[in-house]
């Protein structure tokens, strides 16, 4: 991953770790229990995607040789400081498409003759048009899995970050300005479509990996102070929200149906919980385990 993108990730991670964590206890307990179970059941080294600083990952339970994957250049050392574990690590972009996205945004944002940034409607619309031709296909992840064949993969709260990083990369190309206005803006729609393709490709690679999968991610984000409860598990996730006032909900996975990406596979332990990340920002977290077809209890492989 190029240095600018890596430093954006490092900045995001610093901001994440600097937040007041007083209300995070329930989330951290649930996340560590879920990911910990995945590590305990792993037969051989696992692969931990979005390993970060290990706040949610109980590395003490990880089998020897377990690999962390996170493009934040500080993630491995922060994991070492937190867990005293110097794990093998991959620092590449999981989407495989961030550098092309950034290069396209830079080309569009700068005047070719002067190199000056132009935060104009025309530049924003041009970028919206170009984003449609980009294909974040998770190529590095696909290649790594084909070579190393991990039997267990944990996706540790990373999928919901693909769209955030894409937005930051575009803002950075426009020198910190946000070149789109609202949800009606074509650039906002194009970024959401790019994110949906990145999430779908990531899930496709996981589905084809043949590994036992433990997926933890932001299923939704709610903004504002309106109180709400989570009702019984329902699809889509918004059907689970119980509130007396209208809620402002955002889908960080941009419409991708996670369970639908694993049709015919056994989904277990499907759970959702609420994580109050900051005042006025609550995440609905989702955890699910997807066994490889050959592992489904009672199933004859190949039948
Ligand atoms: C919400 S944090 C997860 C925290 C982590 N599970 C922990 O226990 O500390 C998301 C992580 O995903 C990483 N990340 C986000 N987008 C990425 C990408 N495209 N490629 C690789 N890593 C990425 C970030 O650097 C960050 O550490």
Structure explained in plain terms:
The chain is of the alpha/beta class and 303 residues long. It has one domain (26-44, 97-295). It has helices at 3-18, 25-41, 75-83, 98-109, 121-131, 139-148, 162-173, 186-208, and strands at residues 46-49, 67-69, 89-90, 152-156, 212-223, 229-230, 241-242, 248-250, 267-278, 281-290. Strands 1, 2, 3, 4, 5, 8, 9 and 10 form an eight-stranded mixed β-sheet that branches. The termini are far apart. Bound molecules: S-adenosylmethionine.
In short, what is this structure?
With 303 residues, the chain is of the alpha/beta class.
Instruction: Tell me the number of structural domains.
Output: 1
Binned, the helix content reads 25-40%
One letter per element, helices H and strands E, the order comes to HHEEHEHHHEHHEEEEEE
Structural class given helices, strands, pairing? alpha/beta
Largest sheet: 8 strands, mixed
Number of beta strands: 10
**Number of helical runs?**
8
- Poorly predicted spans: none
Q: What is Rg?
A: 20 Å
Write the layout of secondary structure elements.
Blueprint: H1 3-18, H2 25-41, E1 46-49, E2 67-69, H3 75-83, E3 89-90, H4 98-109, H5 121-131, H6 139-148, E4 152-156, H7 162-173, H8 186-208, E5 212-223, E6 229-230, E7 241-242, E8 248-250, E9 267-278, E10 281-290
Parallel strand pairs: 1-2, 1-4, 2-3, 4-5
Antiparallel strand pairs: 5-8, 5-10, 6-7, 9-10
Bound molecules: S-adenosylmethionine (SAM).
The site of S-adenosylmethionine has 24 residues, from helix 1 and helix 7.
